[in-house]
From TrEMBL:
Residues 17-273 form the Protein kinase domain. ATP binds at K46. It comes from Arabis alpina. SUPFAM superfamilies: Protein kinase-like (PK-like) (SSF56112). The lineage of its organism: Eukaryota, Viridiplantae, Streptophyta, Embryophyta, Tracheophyta. This is non-specific serine/threonine protein kinase.
Length: 431
């Protein structure tokens, strides 16, 4: 069970989540079924051992990346991360509970699926993957074990621990980290010359579709190097029961040449993919329905310009990822929300700096970023102002150097109070 210090007498985590049975257990984490006391809904709570994470820098980075990525994703076919909490010893993820379990178990139990069911799951998978790509997120480990099925029979993509963001792309325009599950890895990853995240995800989607329709892997061999050779050459055989249209479609997904491999946009227009009807989910930042169609289309529109709950949570200083994985976090990074413009906020903060005789230095790489040095260099404060969405602006303050006690004295006695006034509200941690 999680720490006794944060579980009350009613077995509720932080007074919010009533913990139930253990759902799964690994080397670094346990997953519990729980009930959210506020809403009554079921959630899954993942409990991670912070000490073990800190002993494994790669795993710690994966966890931080997964949280960072999941906070920006809001899609009906992606598992939702509701909240992150922490104590000195553990980190807790409160996530959407997906009752049906892994798609892998469904295949293991029933063997191959009907082609109609393959279409249904694959449409939902591509909807989620296309959404991620449009937001600069590349999963890189798509497989049936990471695809969950809810109680309504809908697919949910999970496990973004190996995902990449556009800021990881090198100057050559490619990703270079070798990752993924051997049987699902794209041939260009094996070449070790770099690869495009979107193209390797499409390849993995092709493997998933083949497994759904055939009941076995297209590339498989007890000898790993033999299997890799088959992948690199694109050598596989479709079983006789797969329809000609599906064979043709799979061949475009499992094209071993990434330059000619089918793209997400082309998938959305393919005759096999759209059979039985496909209604793409429309997002507010991509498609704005006109007044005549707005009523008819409103049910399929997801408002992504507005903040979801985790957007707010993730900007809380108490849940800053560096703080979650640190052993001595003392509140040296704080974030505030404001409805004022970045220009106005910068002007008022600069005014405060002049009054306190803090030396200002503009950060060239940041439009609204600067450092304030005080007491002849005894402390340095970094201030970064950026627009979060159409309505809200976030102000982040970090201690950049100098004496921690001098910084805390200035922060607690003057600067924090000034920022509360400037931003017209309290820090996110109190939301």
């Amino acid at each position: 069970m999680p720490d006794n210090e944060i579980v009350d007498g009613d077995n509720a985590l932080f007074g919010k989540y009533e913990l139930g049975k253990l759902l799964g257990c690994g080397a670094f984490a346990k997953v519990f079924h729980a009930r959210d006391r506020r809403s009554g809904q079921s959630v899954a709570v993942k409990v991670l051992n912070k000490k073990k994470l800190l002993a494994n820098p790669n795993l710690a980075n994966n966890i931080k990346r997964e949280i960072s990525i999941m906070r920006r994703l809001s899609h009906p076919n992606i598992v939702k991360l509701h909240e992150v909490m922490a104590t000195k010893a553990k980190i807790f993820f409160a996530m959407e509970f997906v009752k049906g379990g892994e798609l892998f178990n469904k295949i293991s139990k029933h063997g191959r699926l009907t082609e109609d069911l393959c279409v249904r799951y694959f449409q939902q998978l591509i909807s989620a993957v296309g959404y991620c790509h449009a937001r600069g997120v590349y999963h890189r480990d798509l497989k049936p074990e990471n695809l969950l099925i809810d109680e309504n029979g809908n697919l949910k993509v999970s496990d973004f621990g190996l995902s990449a963001l556009t800021d990881q792309i090198r100057p050559d325009g490619l990703l270079h980290t070798l990752c993924g599950t051997p049987a699902y890895v794209a041939p260009e990853i094996l070449s070790k010359k770099g690869y495009e995240g979107a193209k390797v995800d499409v390849w993995s989607c092709g493997i998933v579709l083949f497994v759904l329709a055939a009941g076995f892997l297209p590339f498989n061999d007890p000898n790993l190097m033999t299997m890799y050779k088959k992948i690199y050459k694109g050598e596989y055989k479709c079983p006789r029961w797969i329809s000609p249209d599906l064979k043709r479609f799979i061949s475009r997904l499992l094209d071993n040449n990434p330059q000619t491999r089918i793209t997400i946009d082309e998938i959305l227009k393919d005759p096999w993919f759209v059979k039985g009807g496909f209604k793409p989910i429309k997002f507010h930042d991509q498609i704005v329905p006109d007044s005549e169609n707005q009523k008819a289309e409103s049910e399929s529109v997801v408002m992504v310009k507005s903040l979801n709950a985790f957007d707010l949570i993730s900007f809380s200083s108490g849940l800053d990822l560096s703080g979650l994985l640190a052993t001595n976090s003392v509140g040296e990074s704080e974030r505030f929300l404001s409805e004022k413009s970045p220009e106005k906020l910068a002007e008022e903060i600069e005014s405060f700096a002049r009054v306190e005789k803090l030396r200002m230095k503009k950060k060239k790489e940041e439009e609204f970023g600067f450092e304030m040095e005080g007491q002849n260099g005894k402390f340095v404060i970094g201030v970064y102002i950026s627009r979060l969405n159409d309505l809200l602006v976030v102000v982040e303050v970090r201690r950049r150097g100098g004496d921690a006690d001098c910084y805390k004295e200035m922060w607690n006695n003057k600067f924090k109070l000034q920022l509360l006034r400037v931003c017209d509200q309290t820090p996110n941690a109190d939301i």
